[in-house]
Design goal:
Blueprint (H helix, E strand, L loop, with lengths): L1 E6 L5 E6 L6 H4 L8 E7 H17 L3 E7 L8 H13 L7 E6 L1 H13 L6 E5 L2 H7 L4 E6 L2 E8 L4 E4 L9 H17 L2 H7 L4 H6 L1 H21 L15 H10 L7 H18 L8 H10 L12 H9 L11 E6 L2 E5 L4 H10 L3
The protein binds nicotinamide-adenine-dinucleotide (NAD) and zinc ion.
Length: 363
């Protein structure tokens, strides 16, 4: 097991445990001074496989946990489901020291996290991420929330967990497409902060990962460390450091929105977005153009796209990018690589450079 600390302002913080068996969570909650009642939130595919072992461990440690199962998928990440969770909280007799345990991918984590942030004005939250994406990204850093019909993650709160507990053995049932989505975020960490990650991903593939849990643990811990460091520097996303985690995301979110979240997974969309960002930086002389083929080869190796599969209306992509939370006063702003392991925010570039990049990625 590896432990990664998240050190926040004014002595606050928590630990991320990488390679921590679900059955052991219960007895590791003793130091937190929690009530006996607790609510485990999960979605159906995850609950069916992994809730029993987690619940057993909680009961053995003296807890009386209730289980709330929500529908799986982004479509369920809304206020209606949260309302149901509040009612489950009432039924489970949660009090202000009762833990909410999120067992699942980012959808469950974001939603259970938001419920924990708001029910009784805030309950202790434990994240047990079960997808690669949620392990390396969404379970760390305290962003919680739900979607509105008008857009993703429009309602939310910053609510840091008390503990992040990652049992890597659950990844054995993760579908390959979900693996790839997580790998896209791992590539992002490699590009913005840790070129060793890129070197490792160039040597292995999914079949190797399935045989070598030590390598998975290494890559998850490295990624978690980067996310933890960035979050510690910029907890509420106001100082600029956290923005670096958005490499590929301005393009990627636009691709997801224009295709109505149906054609590309998040990881596929940001893979195209990272290529676009690298190409833009290459055109501007910020990032060496010779680096772009390396990034593309790595993404292809992992089955991730470097350009859109079918042309998309440029007008719509530009409109979606202009609505991005990171666009200021109508100016486009992208995080771009500077060299392997370093990125920066770029808003000063000619429109013609952006147009050429969009053509190159098929938009
Ligand atoms: N809070 C943040 O900082 C942050 C960061 C990135 C993404 N997100 C959010 O995360 C969400 C995406 O998360 P995700 O990619 O984990 O998707 P997800 O939660 O929808 O999980 C993907 C699918 O995998 C299944 N699954 C989960 N674990 C499994 C396992 N071990 N074995 C088999 N199947 C399993 C789930 O049931 C689901 O069908 C989005 O809503 C996104 O907005 C949040
Ligand atoms: Zn992302």
């Amino acid at each position: 097991m590896k432990t990664v600390p998240v050190k926040l302002f004014a002595g606050r913080g928590y630990f991320i445990k990488v390679g921590a068996p679900l059955r052991d969570l219960g007895r590791n909650l003793r130091p937190f001074g929690l009530s006996r009642t607790a609510l485990v939130v999960s979605d159906r595919p995850v609950a069916r496989r992994y809730a029993p072992v987690l619940l057993r461990g909680l009961r053995q440690a003296g807890f009386r946990p209730a289980l709330a199962v929500v529908p799986s998928g982004e479509a369920a990440k809304n206020l209606d489901t949260v309302r149901r969770l509040y009612r489950e909280g009432v039924t489970a007799r949660l009090d202000r020291k009762s833990a909410v345990v999120a067992l699942g991918g980012g959808v469950v984590g974001d939603m259970a996290g938001f419920m924990a942030a708001t029910y009784l004005r805030g309950l202790p939250l434990i994240q047990c991420p079960t997808t690669l994406l949620s392990m390396v990204d969404s379970s760390i850093g305290g962003k919680t929330g739900v979607d509105l019909p008008e857009g993703k993650n429009l309602v939310g709160a910053f609510w840091q967990p008390k503990l992040v507990w990652m049992d890597l053995s659950v990844l054995k049932t993760l579908p390959p497409r979900e693996w790839r989505t997580g790998i896209a975020e791992v590539v992002k960490y490699g590009v913005i902060a840790d070129p060793d990650i890129l070197a490792l991903l160039e040597k292995v593939d999914l079949a190797v990962f399935r045989r070598r849990p030590d390598l998975v643990e290494d890559i998850v811990a490295r990624s978690a460390r980067i996310k933890a460091r960035v979050v510690a520097q910029d907890e509420n996303d106001t100082r600029g450091q956290r923005e670096m985690l958005n490499l590929g995301h301005t393009f990627g979110h636009a691709i997801e929105a224009v295709t109505r979240y149906g054609r590309y997974t998040h990881g596929e969309a940001i893979a195209v977005g990272m290529c676009a960002a690298a190409r833009l930086a290459g055109r501007m002389g910020i990032f060496s153009k010779e680096n772009v083929p390396r990034l593309e080869a790595l993404l292809k190796r992992w089955g991730l796209p470097c350009r859109v599969r079918r042309p998309l209306p440029r007008r719509k992509i530009l409109a979606a990018m202009a609505r991005d939370k990171k666009a200021y006063a109508g100016r486009f702003r992208f995080v771009v690589p500077v060299r392997w392991g370093e990125a920066k925010s770029l808003s000063d570039f000619p429109r013609s450079a952006l147009d050429k990049v969009l053509t190159e990625i098929g938009i």
